[in-house]
Fold these 4 entries.
Entry 1:
Amino acid sequence: MEELISNFAVFDGFSDLSLLKNHENLMQNIEHNILQHYHSQKKHFLFSSNTQLQEDIESTLHRLAIGTRKHYSIYKDVSQARGREIYKILYDTDIITKEYTREKLLLKHLGPLKKEFRGYKREDKIRFSKEYYRFWYTFIYPHYSDLEKNEYNQTLSEIAENLGYFISSYFEELSNTLLADIYKDEIKESGGYWDKNVEIDLLVKLKDGTQITGECKWTNHKISKNILNKLKKVTQKAQIRADFYALFSKNGFSKELEKREDNKCFYMTYMLLKGSYHDR
């Protein structure tokens, strides 16, 4: 199951599924299905015949792939007019979608805003509609010059070094989906939470008012109690009331954490891999 999740995190949205060949491991799948077919794959990422506009679009997608995905980050290197033009093209071609912020408005009528909040704007985030698009602009785009010459070594090295971190973002989405499946019609809203000071992997609100914050770890290490304590602190800093804390782990939990008697936590050990969870 771990292998399936990892492959889907890369190949979701792959343009030629009928040509997709399954090899021994994920890195070989990437090399033989993507890198060796770079010249045929790149045609799926042509957005404009205007060379400058195409370059602006691709550099924007690269920033979104490796950055915070905040809405206004698109205007870092382009004018607002060009930014709006780029967004329209990417929305129309279904390359990106929007993830709306759930940060509360700063209410000016309650009094003067603190200095650090003056001029501050809440920001939505931009999400790639398919994981393959995010993979392309994370790992393939920076190595165009090598891949044009059919040179793969540097690209493969960078992918191998950073692939776990890349998959972790997708693991958050799967964890959110699993919570939605567990609570089904009880969910009012779910997804990530971010504001000026903090980021939380998951914030789930149920119709009965129950709130759950969660942390997801796609690593080869077991989750320790430090991760739970960090989640509690971040939740408090965001001034969010949490009735339960959910921990999602690729590789389980420390013995110390599993022995904790805490009726406000549920640990989801291998939830996605074994299809089970236990409630504490």
Entry 2:
Amino acid sequence: MKTAFKLLFIFCNCSALFAQQWKDKKYHYDSTLNVVYGTATNFNGGTDTLKMDIYTPYCDDQAHIATRPLLLVIHGGAFLAGDKGESNITAICKQFAKRGYVTASINYRMGFISDKLAWNCNYPNYSCVFSTDSAEWYRAYFRAIQDGKGALRYLINRHKSFRIDTSNVFLAGESAGAIISLGIGLMDTASEKPLQAYAISDAAKPNTNTANCPYNAGKTFSNSLIPRPDLGSIEGNIEPSNIQYTIKGIGNMYGAVMGDILKLHKSNKPKPSIFSFHQPCDMVVPIDSGRVFTGLSWCMTNGYGCFAIANSAKLYGSRTISQWNSNFNYGYNIHNEFTSTNFPYSFLIGKGSCSDQINNPCHAYDNFTLRADNLANFFAPMVSTSPICDTTFFPSSLSNNYSKNKINLYPNPAKTTITIEHFSSSPLSLSIYNSLGQTMLNNLVLNEKKTSLDIRFLPAGIYSVFIKDSNGVVQVVRLVRE
């Protein structure tokens, strides 16, 4: 029964050389966890602090220091649960960081106002998926899109520090995370804002049996009606920015849209390409169209003796998205990877039946590694920035200079002082950056062949030390400050 309940909350123009670069996992990466990217008002009127985890690739040998593509990854959980640190999410982030992408996973505002009715059933946390009305699903969806857009702007506003190529931005998500990713990438005009995200009638206080739902943890509700104000613009208020960026591709892993947000798209922006993986037997997000938990509701009414899940939103799944694109000539590049098993509308018998999906859920990957690799292969030809570690991009004269200018840095790790020794005939300059890409020391000139540097001004952590000569040739050394 516990396993079954998890279903409720899972929820260019460039050369062949460049394309291959973004498929191969050949880089190291650093991670910086729990970076605050903003605050926002939650469904109960309180304030949520929003955090992200950032993974930055680096080279430990000759480096062509260039900008890098950005991938924002978003977890699922039916807008009610989940975390940026889930294993599938961190695995995608790390795999793409190894391919040279700056990657980030985010937490976003979750939850909605639960129904005033009890909705009891012999099924774990059954009442947690009943909202006061269907509008609450749209409002949760809209808040999450605002947060995702704000997280993206947080990184774009710091593109110089992270060395992000703002013309090479990608999104990916699973379940609700895929729905959010599609919303971030496709909802770009004010008229696409859902009507439910405007000010609507107040909601009644939730039933007390939802107090232990994850999204209600630590929240209190007054005895009066709960206000539901206008949620604001589709962009939200986090990290305003005038910096232009281009979303090249979206990874839609068993996700959907809540309306036709493909139809309208800003004419000055290219339409992002979409990679969709979905299983037709999905009981949570229909591959075609239907309410959230359509299949699971069937299982509850045909085996568990429960009521069908009420007040949920209508979704338009991956196959419908693709059909809209074809039928209406929207012009998106969409690549579909759909499996073949349909939901059999059987509680006990057959592949994809209710009982079979307890251990083999269709709202999941059939093969995570295959799908992640295929997503990387789909994105790779769209990346138009040069590789970050490739000596073929050095003219031969600079490559020769590089070998002559090799430096020694010791001790490493170090606590108080490091020594930098170089063999160049001319002075070099040294810069130090932390794992967020922030400058800690800028262009210190190394006039002597051997220089001692007090590093007690650096907090404990991992740093990138850049050594540059007059020709712009760079060597990068990873420094550990104990």
Entry 3:
Amino acid sequence: MPPNQAPVLYLPHGGGPLPLLNDPNHQMLTQFITGLGHKLATPAAILVISAHWETAQPALTAADNPALLFDYSGFPPESYQLSYPAPGAPQLAAQIAEKLQQAGFNPQLNTNRGWDHGVFVPLLMLRPQADIPVLQLSLLKGLDPATHIALGEAISFLRQQNVLIVGSGMSFHNMQAFFRQDLVRDAQVEAFNQYFIDSLQPQHSYAEQAKRLINWQQAPDARLMHPREEHLLPLHVCFGAAKGSTAQLLFNDKVLHKTVLAFGW
């Protein structure tokens, strides 16, 4: 990896705030992401693409100090008292918006929206010091995979500026299956994940890898794994942002089926 070129990470943010509440099922994930943060070189800023923000055109948080958006319910009181007082990055947001405009998008700067749990939950594990500027980029309504790869390609320049790009989603996201153990078998999830691991192997060209990601519904039991693909598409943005950098599987939790992928690690 060239000096000061940041990697790109696709991380699972877990179930609401559970990774931060000592939930035993999330213990392995919490420990891994916390350890991963210790291994990362200090980035100049962090850009997060979360599964929990969708807009018609790309939107970027652009406040000086965004608040937290507690977009979950039914959890203990302490989960609504979490804080992540990192500064925002309005100037970087404006720079990204200019690049997105050049790529044919119509970006918007949002100074009102706070960071949702797809941002602050993984960052409280990855960078609990909250000392690095953070901004969030939305997914696009319509959930077109090719468009999200193009979105990633348009922000790939950030890696040269030592900006850490984090896709925050889940490689497996079927809400019914989280409460019904008989709905999905472990072997089905593993076969689905293997499709993406195989797709990102270096023997495939970038174009071939992109084609396999665009056609993700050809993966085994794809719609059973993702009845709606908003938690998968941050991977497509990460793939585009990495622009051919080698992908590496860093972590695969067989308990909750949480996978961590890194590009250019």
Entry 4:
Amino acid sequence: MWNSEKIQEVVESNKIVIFAKGTKLMPMCGFSQHAIAIVGRLGKPFEVVNIFDDPSIRPALIEYSKWPTTPQVFVGGELLGGSDIVEEMMKDGELQKKVEAAFAG
């Protein structure tokens, strides 16, 4: 059973984590696929939590992040947003800065 404390534990124990529909190798929606591809291009290790693995993940995630949609990309414990936001951050170099800072600490 997932709750906001378990979400927080996953977020804090991974420098990069994506809560997505599907897995790294088998995303189940275009937005999740896009977010995974963008983060994958950074060349750093990251985790993907499939929200379909347990029906309690999504409501716990929404309660934790106060963000209603997936995917949700967290870097260094901070929610950055979904695929559209991380794409913009990638274009302007902000995503790389956040990732470098997360792995420097």
